[in-house]
Automatic annotation (TrEMBL):
The keyword Cell inner membrane does not apply. One of its GO terms (biological process) is proteolysis. Disulfide bonds join C104-C147. It comes from the Eukaryota. This is Peptidase A1 domain-containing protein. The active site is at D91, D318. Pfam families: Asp (PF00026). Residues 1-15 form the signal peptide.
C-alpha cells in the first residue's frame, strides 16, 4: 500500500497532503448471494430486528443498523509507537474508530457463538470456525470468539499510549462491539510509508466484538464523519488531525474504482488535505450540508429511463454502503423502469445483466449527475445481476437516501469538513 506526499500538487516541501490507497475485496453479502445463503441470513436478521424493536434502546443516534456485510473497500492504519497495524473500513457513514484490544474475547462467554452458528451455511460466513457444528464434535475445540483472527492492540507495547478508560458500546444489526477508550498516535496508511500521523487521538479498544465480524477481513472501523455523530462524542481521528492543523485544507477526497467481484486488488485512494486532481476531474459543484453529522445534504430528484421523482429528500454520502438505498416506492419505480424485479427472499432487485439504459440521474443543487448502468448492475452469479438499489427506511427521521459506492465510483466525493459542504467531480475511468 502506498502513501505519499503530493509535493507536486501543492508545490511546498511542508505540504500536508497525504494519499491512502485502498484494497477492494468481495463483500460477504456478494459471497452469500452467490452461495445461496443470503435469504436465510436475511430471515435471521429480520427475526433479530423484531426482537430488538421490543426493547427501548434500539435506535441509538449515529449508529449503523447494518453489519458491514457489504463492505468492499479497506485500508491499513497504524496505532501506537512503535506502530501496530490494523486493517479497517474507512467509513464516511460513521464517526468512531475502534480496533480489538489485546484483551478482546478474554471475558468471552457463550455469547460469542450465537445460535445461528449451529447452522453450517451461516457458520461458514458469519462465525468463528470453532463455532461451526462440523467442528463442534472435535474434542477440546478452542473457545470461539470473533477476536481470535484479528490483530489486537497491545497498549503495554506503545510508548505514546495514555489511559482513558471510558466505556463505549456500538450496536450493529446482529450484534455489538464494546470496550473502553484509550489515547494514542493514529496514523493513516502503512508503517514505513509517509503517513498522516495524528497524536493524542482517542479511540475504542474493543474487548468484545459481535461474531459476524469473525469472517470479515477487517480488524475494526474508522469513522470519518463528524464528532456530533460519534458515540461518546469522541473526536474522530481525521477531525482531530484538522483541529491540530495537520492538513493543508480541512477536507478529503474519496476516489473508488469499479473492479467487479474480485478480492484484494487496488481499489481506490483517499486524499487527505486536498482535492484529488490525479484521479478526479474538476469539481462540478459543491453542495452545502443540511446536517454536519453524516455528510448529509439535499437531493432534488432521481430518475432513470421514463421515470423520475422530484420529491426532494435528505441524503448521505456513505463509503461504507455498497448500494444506493431510498424509499421503497421510489426504488421500486426505478427498478421497474429498468426491468428489474424485487426478490423478497433475497431482499434485492434482480435484473438481466444485459439490460440497457443510459444511466440513473441524480439531481443535486440543480446539477444532474448520471450514474452509468455498469455502476448499478452488479454481477450476482448465474447470469443474473443485482440492480444496486435497496429499499431503506431510517424510521421517520434522518436521511431518506444513502448514496453508496455506485455514486461514489462515478463521482469522486470531496468531503469538505471546514466548509461543511460536499463536492462532486467525475472519477477518472468511471
Ligand atoms: C496491511 O498491512 C498488512 C501487514 O503489514 C499487509 O500484509 C497488507 O497487505 C496490508 N493491506 C493493505 C490493504 O494494504
Amino acid at each position: 500500500m502506498k502513501l505519499l506526499v503530493l509535493l507536486a500538487l501543492v508545490g511546498l516541501a511542508s505540504a500536508a497532503v497525504y494519499q491512502h490507497s485502498l484494497t477492494k475485496i468481495t463483500s460477504k453479502r456478494s459471497k452469500m448471494i452467490k452461495a445461496g445463503t443470503w435469504p436465510a441470513y436475511l430471515k435471521y436478521k429480520e427475526f433479530l430486528r423484531l426482537a430488538k424493536t421490543k426493547t427501548a434502546n434500539f435506535q441509538s443516534v449515529g449508529q449503523k443498523v447494518n453489519d458491514y456485510e457489504d463492505l468492499e473497500y479497506v485500508g491499513n492504519i497504524t496505532i501506537g509507537t512503535p506502530a501496530q497495524t490494523f486493517l479497517v473500513i474507512l467509513d464516511t457513514g460513521s464517526a468512531n474508530l475502534w480496533v480489538p484490544d489485546t484483551t478482546c474475547g478474554a471475558g468471552g462467554g457463550g455469547s460469542d457463538c450465537p445460535d445461528y452458528c449451529s447452522d453450517e451455511t451461516f457458520c461458514e460466513f458469519l462465525c468463528d470456525q470453532s463455532c461451526c457444528s462440523s467442528k463442534k464434535s472435535l474434542p477440546a475445540a478452542p473457545k470461539a470468539n470473533a477476536c481470535s483472527t484479528k490483530h489486537k492492540f497491545d497498549s503495554s507495547k506503545s510508548s505514546t499510549y495514555q489511559k482513558d478508560g471510558t466505556s463505549w458500546n456500538i450496536q450493529y444489526g446482529t450484534g455489538s462491539a464494546s470496550g473502553f477508550q484509550g489515547l494514542d498516535t493514529i496514523a493513516f496508511g502503512d508503517a514505513g510509508t509517509t503517513q498522516l500521523t495524528v497524536p493524542k487521538t482517542t479511540f475504542g479498544q474493543a474487548t468484545s466484538i459481535a461474531s459476524f465480524f469473525a469472517q470479515d477481513p477487517i480488524d475494526g472501523i474508522l469513522g470519518l464523519a463528524f464528532t456530533s455523530l460519534a458515540v461518546n462524542n469522541v473526536v474522530p481521528p481525521l477531525i482531530n488531525a484538522i483541529n491540530q492543523n495537520l492538513l493543508d485544507k480541512p477536507l478529503f477526497t474519496v476516489y473508488l474504482q469499479e473492479k467487479g467481484a474480485v478480492d484484494n486488488v487496488p481499489g481506490g485512494v483517499y486524499t487527505y488535505g486536498a482535492v484529488d486532481t490525479q484521479n478526479c476531474g474538476a469539481v462540478i459543484a459543491y453542495q452545502k450540508l443540511s446536517s454536519a453529522t453524516y455528510y448529509q445534504f439535499k437531493m432534488d430528484a432521481i430518475g432513470v429511463g421514463s421515470y423520475s421523482s422530484s420529491t426532494g429528500w435528505d441524503v448521505i454520502s456513505d463509503t461504507g454502503t455498497s448500494f444506493i438505498g431510498g424509499p421503497q416506492d421510489v426504488t421500486d419505480a426505478l427498478a421497474k423502469a429498468v426491468g428489474a424485479t424485487y426478490d423478497d427472499n433475497y431482499g434485492t432487485y434482480f435484473a438481466d445483466c444485459k439490460s440497457s439504459f443510459t444511466g440513473v440521474t441524480v439531481t443535486i443543487g440543480g446539477k444532474v449527475y448520471t450514474i452509468s448502468s455498469k455502476q448499478v448492475l452488479v454481477d450476482a452469479g448465474n447470469g443474473q445481476c443485482e440492480f444496486a438499489f435497496f429499499p431503506f427506511d431510517f424510521g421517520g427521521y434522518g436521511p431518506a437516501w444513502i448514496l453508496g459506492d455506485p455514486f461514489i465510483r462515478q463521482y469522486c466525493q470531496v468531503y469538505n469538513i471546514g466548509e461543511k459542504s460536499i463536492g462532486f467531480a467525475p472519477a477518472n475511468g468511471a
